[in-house]
Amino acid sequence: MHKGVTAGLAQPADTAQGAGEVAHSYRSVRALSEALAAPLSDADATLQSMEDASPAKWHLAHTTWFFETFLLRERVPGYARFSDDWPFLFNSYYESEGARIDRFARGLLSRPTLAEVIAYRAHVDAAMGPLLDDPECAGLIALGLAHEQQHEELLQTDIKHALFQNPLGPALWPPQPRARLAMEGAPAKWIEHSGGTVSIGHDGNGFAFDCEGPRHEVLLQPFAISAALVTNREWDAFIADGGYAQPLLWLSDGWAWVRREGIGAPLYWDGTRHFTLAGWEERDPDVPVTHISYFEADAFAQWAGARLPIEAEWEAVAAASDPASGNQLDRAGPVQPVAEAAPSLFGNCWQWTRSAYLPHPRFRAAEGAVGEYNGKFMSGQFVLKGASCATPRGHSRACYRNFFYPHQRWQFTGLRLAKDM
Amino acid sequence: MHKGVTAGLAQPADTAQGAGEVAHSYRSVRALSEALAAPLSDADATLQSMEDASPAKWHLAHTTWFFETFLLRERVPGYARFSDDWPFLFNSYYESEGARIDRFARGLLSRPTLAEVIAYRAHVDAAMGPLLDDPECAGLIALGLAHEQQHEELLQTDIKHALFQNPLGPALWPPQPRARLAMEGAPAKWIEHSGGTVSIGHDGNGFAFDCEGPRHEVLLQPFAISAALVTNREWDAFIADGGYAQPLLWLSDGWAWVRREGIGAPLYWDGTRHFTLAGWEERDPDVPVTHISYFEADAFAQWAGARLPIEAEWEAVAAASDPASGNQLDRAGPVQPVAEAAPSLFGNCWQWTRSAYLPHPRFRAAEGAVGEYNGKFMSGQFVLKGASCATPRGHSRACYRNFFYPHQRWQFTGLRLAKDM
Amino acid sequence: MHKGVTAGLAQPADTAQGAGEVAHSYRSVRALSEALAAPLSDADATLQSMEDASPAKWHLAHTTWFFETFLLRERVPGYARFSDDWPFLFNSYYESEGARIDRFARGLLSRPTLAEVIAYRAHVDAAMGPLLDDPECAGLIALGLAHEQQHEELLQTDIKHALFQNPLGPALWPPQPRARLAMEGAPAKWIEHSGGTVSIGHDGNGFAFDCEGPRHEVLLQPFAISAALVTNREWDAFIADGGYAQPLLWLSDGWAWVRREGIGAPLYWDGTRHFTLAGWEERDPDVPVTHISYFEADAFAQWAGARLPIEAEWEAVAAASDPASGNQLDRAGPVQPVAEAAPSLFGNCWQWTRSAYLPHPRFRAAEGAVGEYNGKFMSGQFVLKGASCATPRGHSRACYRNFFYPHQRWQFTGLRLAKDM
Amino acid sequence: MHKGVTAGLAQPADTAQGAGEVAHSYRSVRALSEALAAPLSDADATLQSMEDASPAKWHLAHTTWFFETFLLRERVPGYARFSDDWPFLFNSYYESEGARIDRFARGLLSRPTLAEVIAYRAHVDAAMGPLLDDPECAGLIALGLAHEQQHEELLQTDIKHALFQNPLGPALWPPQPRARLAMEGAPAKWIEHSGGTVSIGHDGNGFAFDCEGPRHEVLLQPFAISAALVTNREWDAFIADGGYAQPLLWLSDGWAWVRREGIGAPLYWDGTRHFTLAGWEERDPDVPVTHISYFEADAFAQWAGARLPIEAEWEAVAAASDPASGNQLDRAGPVQPVAEAAPSLFGNCWQWTRSAYLPHPRFRAAEGAVGEYNGKFMSGQFVLKGASCATPRGHSRACYRNFFYPHQRWQFTGLRLAKDM
Lengths: 421, 421, 421, 421
What we know:
The structure is a homotetramer of 421-residue chains. With 421 residues, chain A is an alpha+beta fold. Chain A has 2 domains: 19-164; 190-420, paralog of FGE (formylglycine-generating enzyme). Helices cover 29% and strands 11% of the residues of chain A. Chain A contains 9 helices and 12 strands. In chain A, α1 packs parallel to α5 (138-164) and α2 (56-75) runs antiparallel to α5. Chain A is globular, with a radius of gyration of 21 Å. Chains A and C meet through β3, α7, α8 and β8 of A and β3, α7, α8 and β8 of C. Chains A, B, C, D: It comes from Novosphingobium tardum. Chains A, B, C, D: Residues 27-134 form the DinB-like domain. Chains A, B, C, D: Residues 189-419 form the Sulfatase-modifying factor enzyme-like domain. Chains A, B, C, D: Pathway: Amino-acid biosynthesis; ergothioneine biosynthesis.
């Protein structure tokens, strides 16, 4: 999911989904992408507001290019590409799949139009029909759908960033009434863990991206992890206490970033309001804070006298949770974190860990183009766990590894504290 | 017309146009802008491919903002702005008219849509109706229309630059058949001038931008100026002779630019083809070369053993020509230079002179916001004379002063040689 | 030792050095710094060739500022600073010690002169006399000396980088005859380890930097680590096989770096020669390769069908080695890696590991200014183990953690391969 | 003299200096360069504080390279270069003289040392002996000396800029007592000129740089030029009146520069003090302001209701003045503008004109390497007239054309107002 783009390679694919299930998944995932794009004009779908982001149109086409390239081209004799020129436009970063347009030039593609991209999707979906029942294709299709779900999340965060640049503050969706919970003063709860040897990583059952495995043992010391995510209210206290002005709270690179970029609050904050996919709204203090960088998460934990969890700690605790629980994406709309009476480990926002994104022991990249995938991003990034309000429900797992550079914060990113016991 | 944007301030406005004429001009100029934008999608009209350029949508709105701000707001009691937020978006660089969006953020405005901008134009045009017969408004209206004509030219050159970025090479218009003239081998002709004291600058009759005056005398030495513009064929010879590889032909800043940017041909050239508003086409060798920078024009003149004319030389010779002659813009379409049997001083492309864009003697900037205009651009730029295939016919004059930085070349810019006698 | 700079914080200092030993260490470490600077002119000592590096003069003064600030100022009543202005110049990055000069402006300090800096050293050394016998000072002095040893290494690598910029290729020292070993064809040897639970990190006996502890258990899988460092000959084979031209071998950030910087060989290589502190010399193929980035080390390991070791693997194997063995710095001179018949884990060059530089479990930063130290660098960097030919012998340990960004390579950095068993 | 470097080509050299005079000039000019460098340490002489500037050592060697390359190499059979490597280091920008070091890498040349450069000078001076009496060499020697005088001025302004970067504020020379004149309230005086046809440009008698000719006629309108230079007191009033905060006073490029660079005062100003070659001193309000850019000069003139003179106006008025008068450089020392009871047109500081640096009519660049010279700088720069306190007396003339980019201000640059009559 990176360089704000993409990612992942299926495990050998003993994914035991029935044929009907594959077709059902295919149709519902593909439909969700288009539902997310429904309120976009052709011009909206063309915008690219920074190099980390991509146009909505590009996400819609790139995920389709994946099925066309790795399934239709390989498995359907005589399949004719929708357009011979488009692979150059919609390949992302697969060096082995040939030349491609510079990342930052994606925002200059007024053609093809959004309508043409939708037609491209229909063309590919129709051609995919026969493959949906083919067990030999199930693994790659599962990969393609997981890949598309990643882009569904990016489509939302990228268009949010683009619309935020517009002084008119356009709303993509109508605002939704939000129930406020009376949570203030709720006691901080910690989930304790006695440490010892734990197993983490994907166990090979069902789909997972390559980097999630192999499963392996890790030795942990006793620790506790907070049951709830850090909230806007707590972040306001951090700001009020001069959190952004005390160099000793910050990593050296983080402090340089704060000064260079003039950072003083999470992305999208302005006074007591924040920008959402429904335009500018008042912030709810009881809602988990989001759109923070690793640097900010780490400084907050320092300030709070705690630390960020490491990946294995988070995963050990989450083993008991339902990864499909919590505030995740069920349908297109103005997603946002919400206050929860019974907090889940999943949902609302991705949670920064103190673990660098590096290979699990005995990790091996897959062969061939699909194998260019996740291994190549293993320097300089940190792992995030959980799922966010923009993650399609069903996409994530306890062993799921999201990863971003420590300064990036246009995703729905937040934090949960940890401490030694 | 600058920083790729705009420009100009009317002389005190003794413009003796009849009332009906004003209304007629207003309607035809305004209609031409919309005709030029007719083949654009909303997404096309949103693109900004470099800081020098602006989105088509922005040109359409900014020229309308001019009439709303300097005429409707001042002269129509109770006039209600179409939108209170839009001035922030569509002011260009008028410091005295308040804050405005960063130039390079213009390309992130997917909203308002092209359709909304067209509605804005209709709203303002309707409100302007009563003013078109008001003699007191004639001067400012003439200024607004000349201003809009400048943006009509920029709209064409800016969208050309934006579409050029697209690897698909989209055509905005269908290609047009072009008559080829049998011109090869035609003798080079020189227009000779004996020098002496000549008068240049605007004489106060009819509309002109402020920087075109005052009229004043200049002492010239005998010189000659070539009757024809330099052609693609001649430019090919310059390239074949290693013109882009010989540092001694180039100005120091020009040579640094050639190396830094890897320049080896005019903008839009690729092999024997060039990019046009009708997509990629074969170049006609007999057609005047265009899309060259001042640096390139100067190096070519060095190579040819000649020099560029100075502004006063060009203007002295052009005094006898009809400024409405030659290949200029009559209607929306895929404009391009053409070969001419009887070359005109006007039309085809703007011609670089060796004169810096500086004030004429006794030039004074006008007071007030409209007066921020042309004077402020008087450092670092060079004067171009004539008119191009994208200039609305009737817009230019012998004393007209177009100006750009020496590295800029996305306008229809070419050259005509001069020599001492 | 970072941002190419500095340093570390002592464990609580139960350093059981006798008083005489402290004084002896102090004098020999301090003398070595000056011996390293002996061949430098005032101008040499002023050079700063990139932001990562510092002038030699600055290293000499900054290490002295440490003793003046944390020992003399605190412990010697009435001590008068050598100069009240110098702390601003020679503080490195201690936010709590007040303002300091911009890193990259260090190279503009022609004043104070090298001679004045040497006088500063003498002044501080004289004042330090009484403290060398004070057991309460022993911990901080050990820290100051370890800190100075780090800068002794940086002084050598920074001046090497600076002289390399000079087209004259100046030699700092006369070349030394080097014994060539007949090693070609020697069988690659692997040191095998059966994995299981191992203890790593500093055990609290003797001096260590804060980040080296606490000691803790880690669970390892069976692995092997190569007995020898990768050599110039092997690196030549990597280049000959197109190693720098195959994107699939590289991390994504690494490939971007290769293309952006035009990288095609280790730093300081040119043809069959390389630049050394004795000027340009022919490379010896049997000598360990050095001056490579993490990106290069990782790509080489990919190409070789192996991987880099993780920190705990390296440390577990090194527990049995003498950290004072191998090719390390004994006296000032033109240090370089050498071929060894019986390779040591220490010496010749620092070895990249696949482990990010992150805190050991239960790591806590020390309080106060000295505590700003190592924790703040824990994002984006990788751990290197061992010691180099420029490391003062006695400085390093198995638990020692050197760290640099993955693109940096002006240190003596090389690699040792690892593989799963 | 450009890109803060150099420049100039002799007129065909009918310079009627007697042989003894040539030798005398040679020795005194060469001696002055070394006197200016006398207070510099080797490290001082190595500093390069920005790309526009060069190390003192470089100036001393480059001017010597000129004599070695264009005279000794051509005219002395068997002359052996002092070093074969040095031309690569000390060529400035002569494309035809082969490769050369990147401009900004000049500051990394700790070797050769200042002493070696001085030895180089002695070697060349000795070899030049026989040529000083050769009439055929007189023209080129005059050029070389004029060239060296330009670098003498640059040596002073470049080292001033470099020492200014040092927080210690080092003084190169001891401060000099300065007589203060009681000038406050002195009436502003204007020198009036009735306009008409005037001749400007070099008339061919004696040495001049190529760009100063040919002499030609220009038609002027009546104007006046202020007898005195603008003072620090007047500049304080400009600041107090918000001069740096009013966009309408500024050229568009100038306003962008003010905001980008955070400009609010002349270079070297801090409160009521300014940095000089004798360190930090209180400013004298009656002394001409200096170290201002064209942008600032133009904005001041706007604010004062006046304008800058054009080159021909200044030159027409200066025809009656002695170019060797005023405050110019007679010997090495801490030069600065001074208050003058009877102001001269020459001396104190170079004066910005409103004229772009473009060729005089019928200007032709000389052939060969020396001819690369001045013509290549003719875009984007403005002409300055007069002479400064750092200009060797005897170097300048009424027709002398100094030129810099409009944002540059590390030279001794000031202004004199003009107005229409």
